[in-house]
Fold:
Amino acid sequence: MTETTALGVSPQDLPACPVETTLRLIGNKWEVLVLRDLMPGTKRFGELRRSIGGVSQKVLTAKLREMQADGLVERHVYAEVPPRVEYSLTPLGRSLKPVLDSLEQWGTAYKKKVAAAGR
Amino acid sequence: MTETTALGVSPQDLPACPVETTLRLIGNKWEVLVLRDLMPGTKRFGELRRSIGGVSQKVLTAKLREMQADGLVERHVYAEVPPRVEYSLTPLGRSLKPVLDSLEQWGTAYKKKVAAAGR
DNA sequence: GCGTATAGTTACAAAAAGAAACCTAGCAAG
DNA sequence: CTTGCTAGGTTTCTTTTTGTAACTATACGC
Structure:
């Protein structure tokens, strides 16, 4: 079964500033890490939890639901026992790749700088 | 008077993932907005507070101190009455511009999409 | 029957954020 | 002389968010 959520967002309740608009969807650390780990493809809940690392079950569940409501993430539930739930990015979610790339690039450059200064 | 803070960061206490490294410095909504509003140039505390909008004095103070400790922001105190404190970005802070730009670009595209869907 | 596994919920504790008052020091108005 | 204003900051208190740990449901293998 596949649950989908349309972008039920009214333009008028988005902030005027585009940066804030983006932050409304991925202004949280966990949301960015979900994005990072789903970018290569589908993952199950537990798998995602382990790959993110340090996130509690409760918070990950909550963030995934929000991201689903925002149309960034798709949730596929398989009626098996034990339950299997797979998460993947929607096209909208995948469209955030450039943002993720810029975060990664800056982080890489920064780490290099710190390593050089630490000598 | 000018207070400066070197990047006193040891490479080993940075996360392995560059994305997480970046998030450690600007993983918070307010930090990104400070960056956005200081990118054009120096601002006084109150000015910054108003331009960000919706941030409490306590939290803005705390975030600015953190960003100063991280070497992103410079703090200039003028010994006047009433006090004047000016904030500006360091070169490291300004180097985050590409990240900010990607957030802005995505937000702009998203708003366009939402506006189109809302008809 | 009993333990295992998975995604999720619930109840409680800890941490962060927000709201509002107070502090400082000098200057100006009354 | 007293009162009020200024701007950045701190303190206190309340609310919201986050984290921790225990518990649920259900089929499978033993």
